[in-house]
UniProtKB/TrEMBL annotation, chain A:
This is Eukaryotic translation initiation factor 3 subunit I. GO terms for molecular function: RNA binding; translation initiation factor activity. PANTHER family: EUKARYOTIC TRANSLATION INITIATION FACTOR 3 SUBUNIT I. GO terms for cellular component: eukaryotic 43S preinitiation complex; eukaryotic 48S preinitiation complex; eukaryotic translation initiation factor 3 complex, eIF3m. The keyword Ribonucleoprotein does not apply. It comes from Serendipita indica (strain DSM 11827) (Root endophyte fungus).
From TrEMBL, chain B:
GO terms for biological process: formation of cytoplasmic translation initiation complex. This is Eukaryotic translation initiation factor 3 subunit B. Residues 30-118 form the RRM domain. It comes from Serendipita indica (strain DSM 11827). Component of the eukaryotic translation initiation factor 3 (eIF-3) complex. One of its GO terms (molecular function) is translation initiation factor binding. It comes from the Eukaryota. PROSITE patterns: RRM. Coiled coil: none annotated.
Length: 335, 706
């Protein structure tokens, strides 16, 4: 595996996204900046400047035309991917922790933080794709407040009329996009805060990671637990690798404890687990801080991990990765 | 007398009489009859009464002294040997009966106590003998059932979080759960020395479990207990914590009583569950019993033959008690101004520090004759430690010396050779301070760890102490101990011999950067395991030693060999290390067998085995025919291994099939609801395009037509 070190951020990474074609990597960081890179050689294409606070989250639409970002400066911005121009800005009373495009590119969902007397909220906005993209509405299509425990991560479900959220208490919930009605909830999904949620390529199941040191696979429609991967370190991110039956997990010692523990103890490695057998198959070292976010190329040919150390490491899988059959003929059917 | 016979006038008063009848026995519930009181004459009456009252009061059953009746045989002029005592309440009488019944008043007299009202029952007792109903026999589980495992597997127990699990340790990485319980213990778990029983420590006391399903065998109430231990023969247990008796405490032979209050150490009989005796705690010289923070453990030392137990009062005496009655032998303690002691085969070894001009002295005496077998004077001693070789062939006294200015300077080892005439003493003088010493079990070798690191003893945290390790063996030809090998510049600080000897693990513990495990074989070029005969060593001295493996287990806090000496477990307990808790099982060659990383892992313990029942000849026979025996076992192992892997493959196949079935169902569902998912569809197609380009193109035209 040939790692490429992307050194363009001055502070820890918060989220990394591949576009649908897999040729671009979008990354955001606590240094108020969004970068876009060529995934094949790690060259930086450009930046999206305008936020004035930690950028917690980005997402890109399927045509690689629009980019949406959420930041601690209480703003959500829509960018033109090609030019780096900010097309539209939504402003909220609190920070935006997570954004997501629906798979038909027609909607944007976002989570706003629960702070300063404001309730945490999930808002869904329609995207006007006609014209330049600067004419967007400030009025959300729907808005609802998750009860009991605040939402930390979200994604659209199998279809764009469903939203799945992960919560601080460890529960996951499926909502109707239009009305905000709770369809189904899995209260015992995790024991601690859910840190990441990523859909499978066909959006029929998804993976969550949690500080309770485990990652789990759930069916998107019923939220039934399919598989569970228990590690010995808190997890910050989990991704599903297409083409091969693996999942990727990243995490490590809490950032605040890093200075008091040795590198040996930190566990700052990307772990590869077998999706079906729930067994660890390998690890990739490299980061010297906890891994905050992992993203896999949509075609499964490479992956990128972003760490608390401010680096992005892009690994292109070798031939041997695709050829190797550690479990002999026992392979699940390809998705 | 109540009468039902109609009187002269023919009126029946029986109903009225019944109504107003006086209960003759009413109010006598608070009286007891004390039998077994000495028969005395007039002159000693007052003394007896006061002695009895004192005795009752001491055990927590005071009574008003006026309310005593001592029946008198006027003709003889002597007492009748029993007395009546009236208590204020019936409860107090009951309590007195519970506490004082069978109380030994003096050497010849033992109280027998009955409540006065009960006596009626005895008087009216039916004299004809009725055969008692035989109690239904309830079979108990065999406590040593685990030894009958057909595969001869060992067991081990793990304690993590609130979960306690007993496993069967299979070959390779296969371990089977034998028993699993949540909240089985409050503090920790402990096997008995021969593995028969499992002790769990609770806030209320100790519980012992045994048998294949781990049923409750016995329990001992010692509130807030901190430590416990078994006697080597498993007949007794020792519990430790300050004994506080609340007023409403339960009474009985299996409970601590008022007269035990204030003591710390309690000894219990495992079979009956009864309290045998309590002791105050032993503390270091100059410390107060109530305030001492240092727990000396063990508090009692047992002789290997199970006849005696010794207890030390530092600076004063050693008290030896005989079993099973826990009476002080010859009713006197050994008055010695000493510190250390250790009984073994009824030979007691102890040492006394220098006092004034009197030199320090290590002494061996035999017991119970109290004859001195050997003693040796030592000078400039700051501390001594006694190390018995486990079969009692040698005793090593490690003497820490100091210079005239009381600075610790050197260390030497005085080795007593117990099996030889007059017990000769050999002196080994390593140059540096010896920090660790260990005899090979049943062997003639020992390992010592020494250091000349200036940081040693300064108590600095996080400083790595450099140590040297040396291996010594008794040279039969020269008749002295010679160094086999020495390793310098190490950080090793722990020695763990295999229980069968020959193999040893050297490890670095408690360090933040190093966690070495070195697996050594002391007889690498000897094929026949366990042969102890003085074979003619043609090879060079010390050349038989071989480092089998040098590995690492990060943060290791405990190392324990299994009873067979084939496997060894190293564990990282959350009690002493905060991260990477769990355990690893290695074979004696240092090859990793299984590794478990377990959050909040606390304790690992192999189940010990009792000593073998085979005679020396039988063992020799087995060793001779080892090849034949091992063939059978190897076949079994191979069969099991293929079994295990077959099972694993089956399980994986099942997982794959389940997954594929689920995927098929989901794909169908997705196809049905694909409307409104144009984009997703397009994405899927794009991805598959590379693989099956032609198929996808056709499908795309179809959708376009629709």
């Amino acid at each position: 595996m040939r790692p490429i070190l992307l050194q363009g951020h001055e502070r820890s990474l918060t989220q990394i996204k591949y576009n649908v074609d897999g040729d671009l990597i979008f990354s955001c960081s606590k240094d108020h900046r969004i970068n876009v890179w060529y995934s094949h050689n790690g060259e930086r294409l450009g930046t999206y400047d305008g936020h004035n606070g930690t950028i917690w989250t980005v997402d890109v639409d399927s045509e690689s035309r629009f980019l949406v970002s959420g930041s601690a400066d209480n703003m959500m911005k829509l960018w033109e991917v090609k030019t780096g121009k900010c097309l539209f800005t939504w402003e909220f009373p609190t920070a935006i922790k997570r954004v997501a495009f629906s798979d038909d590119d027609s909607l944007i969902a976002c989570i706003t933080e629960q702070r300063m007397g404001h309730q945490g909220a999930v808002r869904v906005f329609p995207v006007n794709r006609n014209g330049t993209g600067t004419e967007q509405t400030q009025e959300p299509l729907s808005m609802f407040h998750p009860i009991e425990s605040k939402a930390t991560v979200l994604t659209f479900g199998t279809t764009s009329d469903q939203i799945i959220t992960g919560h601080e208490s460890g529960k996951i919930t499926l909502y109707k996009t239009k009305t905000g009605d709770e369809v189904v909830s899995n209260k015992r999904a995790h024991r601690e805060v859910v840190t990441d949620i990523q859909m499978s390529p066909d959006r029929s199941y998804f993976i969550t990671s949690s500080k309770d040191k485990s990652a789990k696979l759930f069916e998107a429609k019923t939220l039934d637990e399919l598989k569970s991967y228990v590690t010995e370190t808190p997890l910050n991110s989990a991704a599903i690798a297409p083409k091969r039956p693996y999942i990727l997990l990243g995490g490590g010692q809490e950032a605040m404890n890093v200075t008091t523990t040795s590198l040996r103890q930190g566990k700052f490695e990307t772990r590869f687990w077998h999706k079906v057998f729930e067994e660890e198959v390998g690890r990739v070292k490299g980061h010297f801080g906890p891994i905050n976010t992992i993203a896999v190329h949509p075609a499964g040919t490479s992956y990128a991990s972003g760490g608390e150390d401010g680096f992005i490491r892009v690994h292109h899988f070798d031939d041997s990765y695709f050829r190797a059959r550690p479990y002999g003929d026992l392979e699940p059917e390809e998705d | 007398m109540a009468s039902t016979i109609p009187d002269d006038e023919g009126i029946d008063y029986s109903d009225i009489e019944a109504k107003y009848r006086v209960e003759a026995m009413e109010g006598l519930d608070n009286c007891i009859v004390v039998d077994g009181v000495p028969i005395i004459d007039e002159s000693r009456k007052d003394r007896l009464l006061s002695k009895v009252e004192k005795e009752f009061t001491r055990r927590g059953c005071p009574y008003p002294s006026k309310k005593v009746v001592l029946p008198w045989d006027k003709a003889e002029g002597k007492s009748k040997g029993f007395m009546f005592i009236e208590f204020n309440t019936a409860e107090e009488a009951e309590r007195a009966k519970a506490v004082m019944d069978k109380h030994p008043f003096d050497a010849k007299h033992r109280f027998k106590i009955n409540i006065l009202t009960e006596l009626d029952e005895y008087v009216e007792l039916d004299e004809t003998f009725k055969e008692p109903e035989p109690e239904v026999f309830r079979p108990k589980e065999h406590l040593r059932a685990w030894l009958t495992d057909p595969a001869g597997r060992d067991q081990y127990i793990t304690y993590r979080g609130d979960e306690v699990t007993v496993f069967w340790h299979g070959k390779g990485s296969s371990s089977e759960v034998a028993q699993e319980r949540n909240n089985w213990t409050d503090l920790y778990v402990q096997w008995s020395p021969k593995g028969t029983l499992l002790a769990t420590i609770h806030r209320q006391g100790v519980k012992l479990w045994g048998g294949p399903s781990f049923q409750l065998v016995q329990r001992f109430a010692h509130p807030m207990i901190k430590r416990m231990d078994f006697s080597p023969d498993e007949n007794y247990i020792v519990t430790f914590e300050k004994i506080v008796i609340p007023d409403n405490a339960l009474q009985g032979p299996q409970y601590l009583g008022k007269d035990n209050e204030g003591d710390y150490v309690a000894v219990w009989d495992v079979r009956t569950g009864h309290l045998k005796r309590t002791f105050p705690r032993s503390v270091l010289l100059g410390e107060d019993e109530a305030t001492s923070k240092n727990l000396i453990w063990p508090q009692l030392k047992w002789s290997p033959d199970g006849k005696y137990v010794a207890r030390i009062t530092p600076g004063q005496q050693i008290s030896v008690y005989s079993l099973p009655d826990f009476a002080l032998v010859d009713k006197k303690s050994l008055k010695i101004e000493g510190v250390g002691k250790k009984p073994r085969e009824s030979i007691l070894a102890y040492w006394t520090p220098e006092i004034g001009n009197q030199p320090a002295r290590a002494t061996l005496i035999s017991f119970p004759s109290r004859t001195q077998l050997r003693s040796k004077n030592l000078f400039n001693v700051s501390d001594c430690k006694l190390y018995w070789q486990d079969s009692g062939d040698f005793l090593c006294v490690k003497v820490d010396r100091h210079t005239k200015t009381k600075k610790p300077s050197s260390c030497n080892l005085e080795i007593f050779r117990m099996r030889e005439k007059d017990i000769p003493v050999e002196v080994v003088e390593p140059k540096d301070t010896v920090t660790e010493f260990a005899w090979e079990p049943k062997g003639e070798r020992f390992i010592l760890i020494s250091t000349n690191d200036p940081n040693y003893g300064t108590g600095q945290v996080g400083v790595q102490i450099r140590t040297d390790v040396s291996f010594w063996q008794l040279d039969r030809n020269r008749n002295d101990f010679r160094m086999l090998k020495s390793l310098s510049g190490k950080t090793i600080n722990v020695i763990r011999w295999s229980p069968r000897g020959r193999h040893v693990i050297l490890s670095t513990m408690g360090s933040s950067s190093k966690s070495d495990l070195e697996f050594w074989d002391m007889d690498f070029n000897v094929d026949d395991f366990g042969k102890k005969e003085p074979t003619e060593r043609k090879e060079e001295w010390g050349s038989a030693m071989h480092l089998l493996a040098n590995t690492e287990h990060y943060g290791v806090t405990d190392i324990e060999w299994d009873p067979s000496g084939r496997y060894v477990a190293s564990s990282v307990s959350v009690w002493r290390h905060s991260v990477e808790n769990g355990f690893v099982i290695w074979d004696f060659k240092g090859q990793e067998q299984q590794r478990h990383l377990i959050d909040r892992f606390k304790q690992f313990a192999w189940r010990p085995r009792p000593a073998t029942l085979l005679t020396k000849e039988q063992q020799k026979q087995i060793r001779k025919n080892l090849k034949e025996y091992s063939r059978v076992f190897e076949e079994k192992d191979a069969a099991m291994e293929s079994n295990v892997s077959a099972e694993l493959i089956q399980a994986r196949k099942r997982a794959i099939n389940e997954w594929n079935a689920w995927r098929a169902r989901i794909r169908q569902e997705l196809a049905q609801t694909s409307k409104g998912r144009k984009n997703a569809k397009r994405r899927d197609e794009e991805q598959e395009e590379t693989v099956e380009l032609i198929d996808e193109l056709i499908e795309e035209t179809v959708t376009a037509l629709e």
